[in-house]
Amino acid sequence: MIIATGTASGKSLSYLVPAVSSVLDGRTILYLTPTKALAADQLRALEELDVPELRAATFDGDTSFEERAWVRKHANYVLTNPDMLHRTMLPRHAQWSAFWRRLAMVVVDECHGYRGVFGSHVAQILRRLRRICARYGSNPVFLLSSATASEPGTFATRLTGLQMAEVTTDASPRGATTFALWEPPLTDLRGEGGAPLRRPAAAESADLLADLVAADVRTLAFVRSRRAAESVALTARARLQDLVIGSDAPVDLPDRVAAYRAGYLAEDRRGLERAFRSGGLLGLATTNALELGVDVSGLDAVLIAGWPGTRASLWQQAGRAGRAGQDALAVLIARDDPLDTYLVHHPEALFGRPVEAIVLDPANPYVLGPHLCAAAAEIPLTHDDLEIFGQSAKEVLAGLVADGLLRERATGWFWTSRERATDLADIRGAGGPPVQVVEMSTGRLLGTVDEPSAHTSVHTGAVYVHQGETFLVAELDLEAGVALVEAGAPDYTTFARDVTDISVLESLHSHPLGRGELHFGSVEVTRQVVSYIRRRAQSSELMGDEPLDLPPRTLRTRAVWWTLPASATAPLAQDGLDLGGAAHAAEHASIGLLPLFATCDRWDIGGVSTELHPDTGLLTVFVYDGHEGGAGFAERGYARALDWLTATREAIASCECERGCPSCIQSPKCGNGNEPLDKTGALRLLAVLLSDSP
């Protein structure tokens, strides 16, 4: 069953009551959540029930070795996350045999967070879990919960592989929420090509947070990064300190603002949560670590610094305020970004619209393959198991055997390597061996980055942030799989730039679109990171563009692309329009707007545009999934192409700049330095493409 009702509607009670009843009957419960904060909050709620037979415990990265042993032997309500299930609980299933035998229910809370490639990995982890349960003779009920899942039954079936009943009626009381759309002003600062820059959303958020705290309004400010959380909190505290001087404001006012993010010690996070619930803290700047159902009742206002990626996340974050039934305020503060610009000028795209359908593809062979290996390592795979993993499992298994990863015998498929099969799947990335991030002076391992992301996130010269500490990457050694870093305090951020070539492998679907044609299919993308830019942290002002020497990477993925014939483009060229610059600008803007129609981030997708592509012989604009095998984003763009491209044109037209800026057609990822770009040309090109469209 999936329960898809609003925030604070009582979803927790719907599974707590039967879960506790099962525990009293000697059964066990497994609770899955995307974040540690939500697990800790649920544990607190369980402990407040004061049921002697209930032995609830979290099992995550913060759990000590001694505690883990106790949880395995004694806990009957285990709160964990997909990462721990994937890497620890399922591979060591024999140690949990008593727990699996008595498992009555699997609660998958805030399930809308499992989307894209990450969601596809979680879907396969849940299938492995079902197989382990069957091995020990249990058949647990799967109960999913979300405040913002579109088409909940369909999504839940894709996630779990099980038929789902859905509950969507919500009769819970709720106060009114005033929702403001806030666009920061243009500044005198200039970026590439002399384009004007807006005041950063984080700076606006800090000012608004200080104003609200000074007015005794308990406020949560959502920002996009750990570093931004610290920056917003520090800036708000400084503003409040200035207010205290020479006024009758309480002297402790600055101390009532703090930052909250992943990377803090568990006891520090719990302390912040308690202080915010009690009112000891009035303002908290946070990453999306507090987006999901943590109980912060009594909250008055929410600030959202930049579009959070989906309507689901927007309403999830806004829903943090007003949970006790009182009226609330929510403010979306636009970043210097095409999508943010579009939304503040087109509120109808937000209000009165359903949340997005959640995109995931469990059958992606680059996701399914590693999990079939992991399943075979847990218990050898048999022909009867293939139904759990889907119709494409047999074909993928044949490839794994051919690659020497599995051995096929008459009784099934076996994992024979001494390596850990779970290492093949980086569920938060796209698979492949990770690159280790090591501090040069101490040899300390700070963390890992999946190999595809290493070129853009830990290249030589990159700014790398780990648990609040800032490092500069001294060297990226791809052969050794190591990025060497040293501590630093730069006043800038870095963005990698790449150049891309794309070839069409197969057009799977196509249809006319205006005077052109729309396609969806398989492509091969060759990307090479060629440089990185430095932008001043506080103002986003461009400080420089530094060259890099990294090898190209090849990606087989899915793309949506549109073409225009010469008969449509020739009149534009005769008018002196730069067709290449127009297509380039349309490509950038369409990448910026696709997240409104597919549950992705602009960093999950890429694009290529050309006046004459060798495979099509026409002016062509591609937008592709940035994950091996595809992630469903381009397919969603194909399905919503008319709405998507119409919104793209409107976003460009509504921007108040003259020639193009980061709010409409410039991209921080562009390997060509955002040249050439033609804003007027993009508007005319899209008008031709969309003309006569139904």
TrEMBL record:
Top-level taxon of the source organism: Bacteria
Occurrences of domain Helicase ATP-binding (ranges): 1-167
GO molecular function term, any single one: ATP binding
The Helicase C-terminal domain, residue ranges: 207-366
Keyword Hydrolase: yes
Coiled coil: none
Keywords assigned by UniProt, alphabetized: ATP-binding, Helicase, Hydrolase, Nucleotide-binding
SUPFAM superfamilies given in the database record: P-loop containing nucleoside triphosphate hydrolases (SSF52540)
Keyword ATP-binding annotated: yes
GO term, biological process aspect, one: interstrand cross-link repair
Protein name per UniProt: Helicase
